[in-house]
Design a protein that fits this description.
This protein is of the alpha+beta class. It has a single domain, classed as Alpha-D-Glucose-1,6-Bisphosphate, Chain A, domain 4. Helices cover 27% and strands 43% of the residues. It has two helices and seven strands. The protein has a seven-stranded antiparallel beta sheet with strand order 1-7-6-5-4-3-2, covered by helices on one side. A hairpin with a 3-residue loop joins strand 4 and strand 5. Helix 1 crosses helix 2. The model has no long low-confidence stretch (mean pLDDT 92).
Length: 146
């Protein structure tokens, strides 16, 4: 299993960061890789699903499998990535200064075989470039709403 994370600190409280992340339909407001999101079923909490249209092309379906208010969201990636058993996560912790530390991450198993190795390397590079951009987008969004 591979796991990649990126952590940033921001001046917003954990509750303020949560209010942005918990609005599952608004992911395109802070994630530069998402054009739009459509929810199906529950709008929040465990079991909520969202379908994402990605930039520059593609799509992804996610289902919430972990939900602890003001703390953690975990999203199983049901389709849209060339990997197995993928779970994206967002963790929020309070800092001593009254702000928040936000960790964006993903864990997954590469697909098997030669194609899995090739796609796994491409996926790794995209994740390592993307996590900081998404985390910074969340911070900018939440601090812009204050």
């Amino acid at each position: 299993m591979n796991e990649y994370t990126h952590t940033i600190d921001c001046t917003a409280t954990p509750e303020e960061v949560w209010s942005v992340l918990a609005d599952l339909a608004a992911v395109a407001d802070y994630d530069p890789f998402v054009k739009s999101a459509t929810l199906s079923g529950e709008r929040s909490g465990i079991g909520a699903r969202r379908d994402l249209k990605l930039r520059p092309f593609g799509s992804m379906r996610q289902e919430v499998v972990g939900w602890t208010p003001s703390s953690i969201i975990e999203l199983r990636i049901l389709r849209g990535m060339p990997v197995r058993d993928a779970v994206a996560f967002q963790r929020i912790t309070a800092t001593e200064s009254g702000g928040s530390s936000l960790t964006m991450g993903i864990r997954f198993a590469p697909k098997r075989g030669l194609l899995g190795k090739v796609l796994g390397g491409m996926t790794r590079r995209r994740i390592l470039k993307g996590l900081p951009r998404v985390a910074n987008g969340v911070a900018a969004r939440v601090e812009g709403e204050r």
